[in-house]
Write a structure and sequence with these properties.
Helix content: 40-55%
CATH topology of the largest domain: Rossmann fold
Largest sheet: 5 strands, parallel
Number of strands: 8
Oligomer: single chain
């Protein structure tokens, strides 16, 4: 099955994407991971993208389309795309690609949380500068304040995790997603999931839906 997964900052879409990948064996294509990898290279493109991210702004459509679709070309079935498309222009680019390659989207999952919850989750996040371990000052603080439990490295807040940046990112997400949600509703594949609550609680809202799609597609292949 081929899945799109959306959600505002802090919705847990990446956490649930990885669980979906593990359970159903799908290829994981995450726009955020692709972008961070480019930034870590220190390339001219990466440095330019970093400026947008630190301001809480979306990257240019042409850049994101190129990065994500180049990844998708290597895996044309059984995938989950995390955090893409995010604008009407990106939807057009993705749909043109899918049409040209005879691919269909089976499910578009939107894990929704409120703005207040988004800010609480993201602004409290802390990341080890050395090993990348993730903490939260409220839900999962390091044993020693400011120090990683795993490697002892410095644990700090990312620039784009500041409350004012998260608030801006949330507003941009909501505004841009409205036409995208309408599009996938018309396609008959859109489902909104309540993202409030613990990880297991949210997962149990997602899992039955995935089981249904997975079993449906498996039976369809058996009858071909």
């Amino acid at each position: 099955m081929n899945i799109l997964i959306f959600g505002p900052p802090g919705s847990g879409k990446s956490t649930h994407s990885r669980r979906i990948v593990e359970k159903y064996g799908l290829e994981y294509i995450a726009s955020g991971d692709i972008i961070r990898a480019e930034i870590n290279k220190g390339s001219a493109l990466g440095l330019e993208m970093k400026k947008y991210i630190e301001k809480g702004e979306l990257l240019p459509d042409t850049v994101i389309n190129t990065l994500v679709l180049s990844k998708l070309r290597r895996k044309r079935e059984n995938f989950i795309i995390d955090g893409y498309p995010r604008t009407a222009e990106q939807v057009l680019a993705l749909e043109n690609f899918l049409y040209d390659h005879g691919i269909k989207i089976d499910l578009a999952i939107d894990i929704f949380i409120s703005k207040e919850e988004s800010i609480t989750r993201i602004s409290g996040r802390r990341i080890c500068k050395n090993c990348g371990a993730v903490y939260h000052i409220k839900y999962n603080p390091p044993k020693v304040s400011g120090k990683c439990d795993i490697c002892g490295g410095e644990v700090a807040q990312r620039d784009d995790d500041r409350p004012e940046i998260v608030s801006r990112r949330y507003d941009i997400y909501i505004n841009n997603m409205e036409p995208i949600i309408k599009f996938y509703k018309k396609q008959g594949v859109y489902v909104q999931i309540n993202g409030h609550g613990g990880i297991e609680e949210v997962w149990e809202r997602i899992r039955p839906l995935l089981d249904y799609i997975w079993n449906r597609e498996r039976k369809r292949k058996e009858f071909r």
